């Protein structure tokens, strides 16, 4: 009887362990799916790797990206956005439907994504520069308090008309930023399509002691 009892207890333990293991695996899978869904539809995270947006954003930081920000409206001048650079910053990169699907669910790396500030929207004319060195938007000089200390609004002279559903973007650290100015002669003219925008950058979330709102 003792042997039978021990066998039954051992079987019971194996069954219990099996159920715990299955539950743990299921919980992990559901957690991953929930994370992917949230990043694809609500809030994504983007890691800063360059200094083109200093001093607002610095290498090594991670930022929250609101994917719902432009569900009912288009990006506005001054917004800091994260976008897929294919067709603009990566003018000759080709993407398949599978690539777009993976990108939509944040299952690809950040090599094709960029963070910049919107300077011009569809219908705007952007020029460098006014007599006092400021950018002109539709003929009016604009103030840019976010520009990196010591930088000029742009050392490169240009005048561009932004097509509808496109955006002219620039980094805050103008002297180091490779942005729409660097791609004027390329396919798309360095202006990104609105449908390539991932979302609006809202705050620095990492490191914790550097948490701040993005303006």
> How would you sum up the major sheet?
8 strands, antiparallel
Mean pLDDT: 82
Alpha-carbon Rg, integer: 24 Å
Spatial gap, N to C terminus: 75 Å
Number of strands: 12
Tell me the helix content.
Answer: 10-25%
The backbone outline, from C-alpha atoms, is elongated
Enumerate the spans where pLDDT stays under 50 for 5 or more consecutive residues: none
**Can you write the helix and strand succession as a string?**
HEEEHEEEEEEEEE
Task: Supply the number of helical segments.
Answer: 2
Q: How much strand?
A: 25-35%
Q: In terms of structural class, how would the helical and strand content be classed?
A: alpha+beta
Report on this structure.
- The strands form two sheets. Strands 1, 2, 3, 4, 9, 10, 11 and 12 form an eight-stranded antiparallel beta sheet that branches.
- It is elongated, with a radius of gyration of 24 Å.
- β5 (125-128) and β6 (135-137) form a beta hairpin.
- The mean pLDDT is 82.
- It contains two helices and twelve strands.
- It has 215 residues and is of the alpha+beta class.
- The protein has helices spanning 2-41, 97-104; strands at 43-47, 62-66, 80-84, 113-120, 125-128, 135-137, 140-141, 158-161, 166-170, 192-193, 197-206, 212-213.
- The termini are far apart.
């Amino acid at each position: 009887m003792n042997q039978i009892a021990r066998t039954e207890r051992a079987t019971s333990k194996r069954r219990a362990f099996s159920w715990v293991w299955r539950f743990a695996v299921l919980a992990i899978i559901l957690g991953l799916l929930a994370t992917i869904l949230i990043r694809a539809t609500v809030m994504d995270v983007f890691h800063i790797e360059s200094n083109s947006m200093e001093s607002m954003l610095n290498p090594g930081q991670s930022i929250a990206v609101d994917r719902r920000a432009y569900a009912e409206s288009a990006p506005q001048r001054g917004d800091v956005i994260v976008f897929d650079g294919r067709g603009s910053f990566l003018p000759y990169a080709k993407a398949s439907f599978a690539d777009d699907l993976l990108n939509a669910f944040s299952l690809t790396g950040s090599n094709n994504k960029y963070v910049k500030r919107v300077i011009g929207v569809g219908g705007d004319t952007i020029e460098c520069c006014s007599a006092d060195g400021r950018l002109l938007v539709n003929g009016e000089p604009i103030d840019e308090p976010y520009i990196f200390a010591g930088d000029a609004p742009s050392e490169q002279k240009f005048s561009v008309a932004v097509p509808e559903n496109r955006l002219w973007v620039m980094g805050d650290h103008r002297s180091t930023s490779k942005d729409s100015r660097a791609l004027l002669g390329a396919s798309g003219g360095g202006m990104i399509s609105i449908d390539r925008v991932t979302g609006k950058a809202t705050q620095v979330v990492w490191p914790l002691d550097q948490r701040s709102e993005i303006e």
